[in-house]
Specification:
D-Maltodextrin-Binding Protein, domain 2, 334 residues, binds 2,5-anhydro-1,6-di-O-phosphono-D-mannitol, five-stranded mixed sheet, Fructose-1,6-Bisphosphatase, Chain A, domain 1, 2 domains, binds magnesium ion, alpha+beta, eight-stranded mixed sheet
Length: 334
């Protein structure tokens, strides 16, 4: 059978009435930008691209050179095609309206241009996360409030993973499809379709160094995993933590598992570390499309009504059975 490229997959989806042509174009442009980012990530020190950019983003985090480059690549690729009204990024305090000398489109694009920044300089997997919403208001000028839609309104989401292979993972609300970059062809080729996360697992992912700050339900859950086969769970668990959400989520999509970045007592006023609109929502859409669950403790993340562009949220996602246990512990703990 001939190989199916991302372009062919998207054109077929368009012909089947699953996506309109402007959304197809949008996703193709994002994927093209990810190829460009992959090229820069590969160059690394050879092109003097490692290290700090000497600036901070709105969250007060130091920006790496590649954070800044990836952000620029995504903005430049997406601003002229006529498919967008505006973009928002982890690296920009305010939304980026499409300049009026370019045609305007009906979509809003959010992204974390390079997630897992702490892994850039140590050559560990990093990725780009994106989320697509419709602009539903009629106002000519795009407002930040136009972005404040719950994740269940996303029309597409995905990520690119820059690891041993460059992988593009996508959902248009019709299951999860995985494409691998064929560098000889310059194309993303379909390598897995209709991905399903196993409902049960023996693997969890959490930054254990924060254990002393966790809430009771999270402590209880992890303690029970650590107790192994002689404990209440009756099985031994393994632990993984890449510190790149993209890589951790990709492992869960591939072989199951559960990922937690919960609220903790370090900064009690912060809902969590990860950002709702361009990290948690796009990943939650993928996870649910693959048969998993994603919650902030008690609530489905996709139902959270955003109040701010850079809002944070606690994240617990992955294999259904594990997330259900976590939800039960959080609900019992009221
Ligand atoms: P970033 O967007 O600044 O890279 O932060 C998000 C990353 C996630 O990819 C990862 O799951 C988490 O931060 C790791 O955090 P920690 O270093 O606290 O373990
Ligand atoms: Mg990030």
């Amino acid at each position: 059978m001939s190989k199916i490229s991302l372009s062919r997959y998207l054109i077929q989806a368009q012909h089947q009435g699953k996506i309109p042509s402007d959304l197809r174009f949008l996703i193709e442009v994002v994927a093209r930008a990810c190829k460009n980012i992959a090229y820069n990530v590969n160059k690394g020190a050879l092109a003097n691209l490692l290290g700090s950019a000497g600036s901070s983003n709105v969250q007060g985090e130091t920006q790496q050179k590649l954070d800044v480059i990836a952000n620029e690549v995504l903005l430049e690729a997406n601003e002229w095609g006529g498919h967008l009204s505006a973009m928002a990024s982890e690296e920009m305090e305010y939304i980026y309206e499409i300049p009026n000398y370019y045609p305007q489109g009906g979509y809003l694009l959010l992204f974390d241009p390079l997630d897992g920044s702490s892994n850039i300089d140590v050559n560990v997997s990093i990725g780009t996360i994106f989320s697509v919403l419709r602009k539903t208001s009629d106002n000519q000028k795009v407002l930040e409030q136009d972005f404040f839609q719950p994740g269940n309104k996303q029309v597409a989401s995905g990520y690119a993973l820059y690891g041993p292979q460059t992988i593009f993972v996508l959902t248009i609300g019709e299951g999860v499809y995985i494409f691998t970059l064929d560098r000889d062809l310059g194309s993303f080729i379909l390598t897995r379709e209709k991905v399903k996360i196993p409902h049960s697992t023996k693997e969890f992912a959490i930054n254990m160094s924060n254990m002393r700050h966790w809430s009771e339900p999270v402590k209880r859950y992890v303690d029970e995993c650590l107790a192994g086969e002689t404990g209440i769970r009756g099985k031994n668990f393994n632990m993984r933590w890449v510190a790149s959400m993209v890589a951790d989520v990709h492992r869960i999509l591939t072989r199951g598992g559960v990922f937690l970045y919960p609220w903790d007592k370090r900064e009690p006023n912060k809902a969590g570390k990860l950002r709702l609109m361009y990290e948690a929502n796009p990943m939650s859409f993928l996870i649910e499309q693959a048969g998993g669950l994603s919650i902030n403790g008690k609530q489905r993340i996709l139902d959270v009504e955003p109040q701010a562009l850079h809002e944070r949220v606690a994240v617990m996602l992955g294999s259904k059975e594990e997330v259900e246990i976590l939800q039960k512990y959080h609900t019992e703990n009221i």
